[in-house]
Design goal:
Order of helices and strands of chain A: HHEEEEHHEEHEEEH
Shape of chain B: elongated
Number of helices of chain B: 31
Structural class of chain A: alpha+beta
Strand content of chain A: 35-45%
Distance between the termini of chain A: 24 Å
Number of strands of chain B: 13
Strand order of the largest sheet of chain A: 4-3-2-1-9-8-7-6-5
Strand content of chain B: 5-15%
Radius of gyration of chain A: 16 Å
Radius of gyration of chain B: 34 Å
Oligomer: heterodimer
Distance between the termini of chain B: 33 Å
């Protein structure tokens, strides 16, 4: 599963990164607005609409991101499950998790902390701003990525609001964020999740 | 008139012969590369294990041409962008061919062909979980349905709800390596992101010009990337070959030019003319051309070891020319024919002795030794014939030459103490004891790894790459044999289990076995049965479907698909065809016996007990390429020592018959003393290996030559004394400089020869008969 998860995370990373850093002018503008943050937390509601399912799959929970440590994604409903992604900065240390997950976490961290620009290598980015709201449209540059996503849109105001991924065949996933905050540091319990298991 | 006609005919005959030889050599090199560089080709035919040989060939074809590039940068984006640039740069470079896909889009496409067998092709880990904790897999799959961006997990509910195939494909990537954007292999290490690219060196035979080009290209790439703060690490067998080539080229320019320069200076000082140098070099070149042509006529392919050593042996034939040229220093009335008359007997005797000695090498059952024998015999005869037939037509007395070189040479020969026969006999006995003592007392070092001597930079870089990414394979590998494919696969699997334990224990870095990735047909059926029991019959699969409300028709379709898949199985041949390289290289097929290869990484950490346990498994052989070559070198060394002794005895007997016991003792005292001296010093300070023995073969030849000249001409013949001195100096210049070589095989050879040549020269007056007053003919 790990392998496929990479692509998923890649898409999300792309979205979030682009949310703060798009077309150079627009990206700079957004970057200023979002500011550079080392920690980001918030809640999310993810809705997946897939043709083979009778009804959309909705999951809710919180996320915690720290530039130096990684990202923890807590799904609370309908089942409780947690995903940890160690950042690359930490993964260079012995004993830290390696590989795809660490790499994804690095990009996600970039997204949440506002250190962006890397995704322009993977996506063509265009965007619009209307009053206080902004929208970015991302299209993958590589065919490998296009297999997984056709179009991605990201919208926000003072913080990121939502990400939408559309597949060519009509399937889609939407994540709506709320309660975005930038604490000085993550709670101890969250940081513990990243410590290697004894 | 008649003499000038004879002279023209001789020159014509010589020119035609040389031209024919050159044309033949050119023809052979033009049609196919007749040079063998594989050291395994040195194995005597009877001792080759056919299957192991096939495995070696397979691995050297597959791995031997592989070049691995690692591009390190602070961020993966930069590393991947750099690899993309590299790809563009390499695409237009004829030196590099794309590996038959190890990663990327093609990688995925190959596995998509196997998707229909997803219920049969389970990863060993999945199979283990199915038995031990079937609920775990279902739980993990369910969790992924609600994870971030669960789209793919949800979409695959229709075809592979548990995600079996993703887990199966996952294991084909080395641990820690991911596919960035699904195409570029990437790994994190040393605080950097490393993008990986693998290419194949386009040329299967490592021709020197292409290796040189490779070295230059890699250097240029490194510099270019360094400007963008990208670190480039490169390794692969072709780079080791290129490194060897570069150092050999360095050696040739320093040693070759250096010795040529010193010999040229010496000749010009002695003869005050450049003509003698040209004549001497001409005789050697003719000898080598003849030797090469004859060898290529006799042998299908010539091993590079035979060529190099044979050419050195023939190079010694410069002595004939030197003796002839020195003879031209006698007086102004000297004519070319006089020279021939003076040196004919001595050089012929020397030639016969050396030819006899080298020819005896040909009886050895080793292809390379036989080639060396043929090459050197043909070369010596070619060079000698040139000196006797051609030089007289071109040489004249060298009247401007100074007298001091002759005075110097005579001085040494005349001041050497005259030894009684008893003393000489004692010396012979002492020398024999010393040689015997060294041979018995000094442990030879044949390990090929101590002889190759790759540059420290390259070894360090290879080690670093090995630590970053487990792509590199050791020269050691495991060969698993069985009566049929099924038995072989069972044994392969058993071996993989044993290796897994070693990896877990940290005594092996990793391995690549067929059993890890291909379940046998019976295992496939078993996999299906387990899946059926654990998930489909028990209804666990519905748990997944219910969790996300999969539509009924989709469920029914999946269950029907699963039911229909019951009879499916993928045969090994089809599987191998689908996955392609590098995995298909692990199966050797069943020409007589079936065999599979398991490649290893981190072999050096295995203990003797580990190896013994592995070898005890049925059908398992631990093959060690380096050890095999080391064995070959050791066998050749033993054979070379035996032959050297035999050759020596034959030459000594020849001397006894020709000159009687007392004279024979005097003559053999020179080469024997030289061998004893150089062998003792080398044995005490360095190691003894095949190349030191080769050096001794030459020392014996030189020693006999010097001794015979002194014996036939006495101590008071100025030109002869000078001839011997110049011969010794040329050998010393040529071989002495070889001891400075960075390749230890060459250096060993050089040290022995330098010592042996010096000793031969210093001892050579012993051979002169005592109380002999003048240098006339016997």
């Amino acid at each position: 599963m790990k392998r496929w998860m990479v692509y998923l995370w890649l898409c999300m990373a792309a979205l979030m990164a682009s949310a703060a850093h798009a077309d150079d002018a627009l990206l700079r503008q957004l970057e200023e607005r979002l500011g550079r943050q080392s920690c980001t937390t918030g809640t999310f509601v993810q809705t997946a609409r897939v043709a083979i399912l009778n009804e959309p799959v909705v999951s809710r929970g919180r996320f915690y991101a720290d530039a130096g440590t990684g990202i923890s994604w807590h799904v609370d409903a309908p089942i409780a499950v947690q995903f940890q992604f160690v950042s690359a900065a930490a993964s260079a240390q012995p004993g830290a998790s390696r590989g795809a997950i660490a790499w994804v976490a690095r990009i996600l961290n970039a997204v949440f902390t506002g250190e962006l620009g890397t995704l322009q290598q993977m996506f063509n980015i265009s965007g619009t701003t209307q009053a206080s709201r902004w929208t970015l449209a991302l299209s993958p540059k590589t065919s490998a990525l296009r297999r997984f996503v056709s179009t991605i849109s990201v919208e926000g105001a003072d913080a990121i609001n939502a990400i939408r991924i559309e597949q060519a065949d009509g399937d889609s996933i939407e994540i709506v964020f709320s309660d975005i905050a930038h604490p000085d540091e993550l709670p101890e319990a969250i940081l513990d999740e990243f410590k290697p298991h004894a | 008139m008649s003499s000038s006609l004879t002279r023209s005919l001789r020159l014509l005959g010589w020119a035609v012969t040389v031209a024919l030889c050159v044309a033949f050599i050119a023809h052979r090199f033009d049609t196919a590369d007749p040079l063998e560089t594989d050291f395994l080709a040195l194995l005597p035919d009877a001792r080759i294990d056919v299957v192991e040989q096939a495995a070696q060939t397979r691995l050297s074809d597959d791995v031997g041409r592989q070049i691995i590039f690692l591009l390190g940068a602070d961020t993966p984006e930069v590393a991947v962008a750099a690899v993309d640039q590299l790809t563009v740069a390499l695409a237009s470079n004829p030196l590099f061919a794309v590996m038959p896909a190890t990663a990327g889009d093609d990688f995925k496409a190959r596995f998509e062909q196997l998707f229909e067998f997803r219920f049969q092709l389970l990863a060993p880990q999945t199979r283990g979980q199915l038995t031990a904790a079937p609920g775990e897999l279902i739980r993990g799959a369910k969790e992924n349905l609600f994870g971030p961006f669960a789209g793919i997990a949800l979409r695959q509910m229709a075809t592979d709800p548990v995600g079996l195939f993703a887990a199966y494909v996952d294991q084909f990537m080395p641990v820690g390596v991911e596919l960035y954007e699904g195409r570029v292999p990437l790994v994190y290490a040393e605080g950097k992101a490393w993008a990986i690219a693998t290419r194949q060196f386009s040329h299967s035979s490592f021709a020197l010009t292409q290796l040189r080009e490779l070295g230059l290209q890699v250097h240029a790439l490194r510099e270019q990337l360094a400007r963008g703060d990208i670190e480039l690490l490169v390794t692969g067998m072709p780079l080791f070959a290129a490194d060897g080539e570069a150092r050999a080229r360095g050696d040739i320019s320093v040693i070759g030019l250096g010795s040529l320069l010193m010999i040229a200076i010496m000749m010009v000082v002695v003869f005050r003319s450049a003509v003698p140098l040209l004549l001497a070099v001409g005789s050697i070149v003719t000898g080598i051309v003849v030797a090469l042509a004859i060898s290529l006529l006799v042998f299908e392919r010539l091993h590079v070891l035979a060529l190099v050593f044979g050419a050195s042996l023939v190079g010694v034939s410069i002595d004939y020319a030197l003796h002839y040229l020195c003879d031209g220093l006698r007086d102004a009335r000297w004519r070319g024919a006089d020279g021939v008359r003076h040196i004919f007997a001595a050089t012929l005797l020397g030639l016969c002795t050396t030819v006899l000695a080298y020819a005896s090498i040909a009886v050895a059952p080793f292809p390379a030794l036989r080639q060396i024998a043929v090459f050197s015999v043909a070369g010596l005869i070619g060079a000698w014939t040139t000196v006797i037939c051609i030089l007289p037509a071109l040489a004249k007395p060298w009247l401007r030459s100074p007298r001091w070189p002759i005075a110097l040479a005579l001085g040494y020969a005349q001041h050497f103490p005259a030894l009684r026969t008893q003393r000489v006999a004692t010396l012979v006995l002492l020398s024999m004891t010393a040689v015997g003592g060294v041979m018995v007392g000094v442990t030879p070092v044949d390990d090929v790894r101590t002889l190759q001597g790759a540059s420290r930079e390259l070894l360090g870089e290879t080690e670093r790459i090995g630590a970053i990414v487990p792509l590199s394979r050791d020269s050691q590998f495991i060969l698993v044999r069985g009566a049929d494919p099924a038995q072989t696969l069972v044994r392969d699997a058993a071996t993989a289990v044993a290796l897994d334990a070693l990896v877990t224990a940290g005594r092996l870095r990793g391995f690549s076995a067929l059993a890890q990735v291909y379940p046998s047909v019976s295992l496939q059926q078993d996999n299906y049965a387990r899946l059926k029991t654990a998930y489909y019959d028990s209804g666990s699969i519905d748990e997944l479907f219910n969790a996300v409300h999969v539509r009924d028709e989709v469920r029914q379709r999946h269950l029907a698909e699963f039911a229909q898949a019951q009879e499916k199985q993928v045969e090994l041949a089809r599987w191998l065809k689908s996955v392609g390289t590098p995995w298909n290289a692990l199966w050797l097929g069943c020409p007589a016996q079936c065999a599979s290869i398991i490649t290893l990484s981190g072999f050096a950490r295995l203990t003797g007990d580990d190896l013994a346990r592995l070898r005890a498994l049925p059908g398992v052989t631990v093959a060690d390429r380096a050890a095999t070559i080391t064995d070959i070198l050791a066998q050749h060394r033993v054979a070379a020592v035996e032959l050297l002794c035999a050759a020596f005895v034959i030459a000594a007997a020849f001397m006894w018959i020709r000159f009687g016991l007392a004279s024979a003792l005097r003559i053999i005292a020179v080469p024997l003393g030289a061998v004893a001296l150089s062998l003792s010093i080398v044995g005490a300070t360095a190691s003894i290996n095949l190349f030191t023995i080769f050096g001794l073969v030459l020392v014996v030849g030189l020693g006999f030559d010097y001794a015979i000249f002194h014996h036939l001409k006495g101590r008071n013949d100025g030109p002869v004394a000078l001839g011997v001195l110049l011969s010794a100096l040329t050998s010393l210049f040529a071989f002495g400089l070889m001891s400075a070589s960075s390749t230890s095989a060459v250096s060993n050879f050089g040290v022995v020869l330098a010592l042996g040549t010096a000793a031969s020269y210093l001892l050579s007056p012993i051979a002169a008969r005592p109380l002999q007053s003048s240098g006339g003919e016997k």
